[in-house]
Design a protein that fits this description.
Elements: H1 3-24, E1 39-42, E2 46-49, H2 55-64, H3 66-78, E3 82-85, E4 90-93, H4 97-106, E5 110-113, H5 125-128, E6 145-148, E7 155-158, E8 163-171, E9 177-179, E10 182-184, E11 197-199, H6 209-212, E12 222-229, E13 232-240
Antiparallel strand pairs: 1-2, 3-4, 5-6, 6-8, 7-8, 8-13, 9-10, 10-11, 12-13
Length: about 240
């Protein structure tokens, strides 16, 4: 079993339990206000029902704390000590006092890898052939970095979508290709074929239309992105419950 499939299996189990418990507890199915207003239920962890922060709020926060975001990137890339944090679902940099302080000040729960190796010219087969020489799990300086969403502010249960939704920041160590309305991950170092892409929108303040108009009535498990700078993005994700 891969790390990614383990994470997904754990998420499925947790969200299925959440979906069953929320109606039983009589939690209101009314969306909260964009200022973070929400109703809360204690299920061992806090569940919030409401809307996500607006893009501009997150962008303003990013700009006001830019040096701290950059320092977290540096720590992730250069501190090769890693510890498994079950509650965060991934490997985390060794939690020094400095790291914990920066996470708190930036307002994220942790950092995680996108499980890809980003080298210079990530869409060139000859350039990416060098990735075969690297262990993707320990090539920390070449990972895309997810700034994992704060559970209280950036994660919500959306009755409108019948899904968990969240917003976060994403950093890419080299300028990625954004083309045709999609963000493109590096090509495969084996066959040179595209490996992954995701939709990019000019705003993440509304749910994408294809999340709302599905045959099942539930959105796909998907993340969509908004480019903030050449190597920085906002992302919004949904997982149906």
């Amino acid at each position: 079993m891969t790390i990614r499939s383990y994470r997904r299996g754990a998420a499925v189990a947790c969200l299925s339990l959440l979906a069953a418990l929320v109606p039983a507890l009589g939690i209101s199915q009314t969306e909260g206000k964009s200022d973070g207003g929400s109703e809360r239920a204690q299920l061992g962890v806090e569940v919030q029902i409401g809307e996500l922060p607006r893009d501009q709020e997150m962008i303003s926060h990013f700009k006001a704390n830019r040096s701290k975001f950059d320092e977290l990137v540096r720590l992730y890339q250069t501190d090769t000590r890693r510890v498994w944090r079950k509650e965060k679902g991934n490997l985390q940099p060794f939690e020094t006092d400095e790291y914990r302080r920066l996470l708190k000040e930036v307002g994220v729960d942790g950092l995680g890898s996108d499980d890809f190796v980003w080298l210079a010219n990530p869409y060139n087969k000859d350039a990416m052939s060098k990735a075969k020489e690297l262990n993707p799990f320990s090539a920390f300086a070449h990972h895309g970095i997810f700034f994992n969403a704060n559970r209280n502010k950036h994660r919500k249960l959306s009755p409108r979508l019948r899904a968990m939704v969240w917003k976060a920041y994403f950093y890419v160590p080299v300028p990625p290709r954004v083309d045709g309305g999609r963000l493109w991950w590096p090509i495969s170092p084996v066959d040179g074929e595209p490996t992954r892409s995701a939709p990019v929108f000019s705003s993440l303040d509304e749910f994408p239309a294809h999340w709302l108009n599905t045959k099942s009535g539930k959105p796909p498990w998907e993340c969509v992105y908004r480019q903030v700078e050449s190597q920085w993005f906002l992302k919004m994700c949904a997982y149906a419950v």
